[in-house]
Amino acid sequence: MNTHNVTPDLMKVAIASAREAGGILQDWVSHFSVSEKGPQDLVTDADLASQKAIQKYLQSRFPDHHYLGEEGLSQTEGKSPFRWIIDPLDGTSNYVHQFPFYAVSIGLEYEGKPYLGVIYDPNRDEMFTGIVGEGAYCNDVEMKLSQATPLSESLVVASLPRCADRTDPAVARFLNILPLAQHVQRTGSAALNLAYVAANRLDGFWSTSLKPWDQSAGVAILLAAGGVVTKMDSSPFDVDCPDLLACSNPTLQSELSEQLCLVP
């Protein structure tokens, strides 16, 4: 199948559904109710409403595609080569505390590989989009990446597991990189971290605690921008594996991988 025949519709629908979901999040932001799904894993009515809107929008146009979503969505019937991977609210804790760093994230795989990504930040009205092999954009402006940024000059970001204590290897990796990088941050939104690497606002990002919906769209966008995405040991990236190293350039990827792998 030639994906170019359907790509314009795929992207158009993904952007429209992300924008609708972002509007729902903003409508709910000041009056949602919060429930506990697990330790510090907050679920809001807004999260559920956002996913429902995305699911309805996409499935009405692509009913034969496969779907995976954070809030219990799993549709795998049939033999479609397409799988949508949806995070209706990436950065839930930020959202709950009204810290404006969260986003809607919609990724699309083709034959099991990252193909298309849309990440919408409703606070800044920024729409990050990308199709692997065809470029990546922020509000229709093409994003360009640096090609040789050493770790000592880099702004990098990490995801740490919730409730991680000082014995957690993820904490040890964070502390190992802290004196080596120009700056190390933790933001609470993996999707925006990946989008920001693609936009050359961050240089690198790593995590061992992500789910497929946290990383699918952002990985597609970063690959479309020409970035490098692997596991921390430089082996091939797998969206179903919580092991990610994403960098703006191969120089930084190699240096970060070496340092991160010093921690078992």
TrEMBL record:
InterPro entries: IMPase, Inositol_monoP_metal-BS, Inositol_monophosphatase-like, Inositol_monophosphatase_SuhB
Name of the top EC class for this enzyme: hydrolase
The organism's place on the tree of life at top rank: Bacteria
Keyword annotations of the record: Hydrolase, Magnesium, Metal-binding
Protein family according to the UniProt entry: Belongs to the inositol monophosphatase superfamily.
Residues that, per the record, bind Mg(2+) 1: E70, D87, L89, D214
Residue positions binding Mg(2+) 2: D90
GO BP field: inositol metabolic process; signal transduction
Cofactor(s) required for function per UniProt: Mg(2+)
Taxonomic classification: Bacteria, Pseudomonadati, Planctomycetota, Planctomycetia, Planctomycetales
Keyword Hydrolase belongs to the record: yes
Organism: Polystyrenella longa
One GO MF term attached to the UniProt entry: metal ion binding
Protein known as: Inositol-1-monophosphatase
SUPFAM superfamilies given in the database record: Carbohydrate phosphatase
Enzyme Commission number(s) from the entry: 3.1.3.25
Transmembrane intervals: none
Reaction(s) catalysed (UniProt annotation): a myo-inositol phosphate + H2O = myo-inositol + phosphate
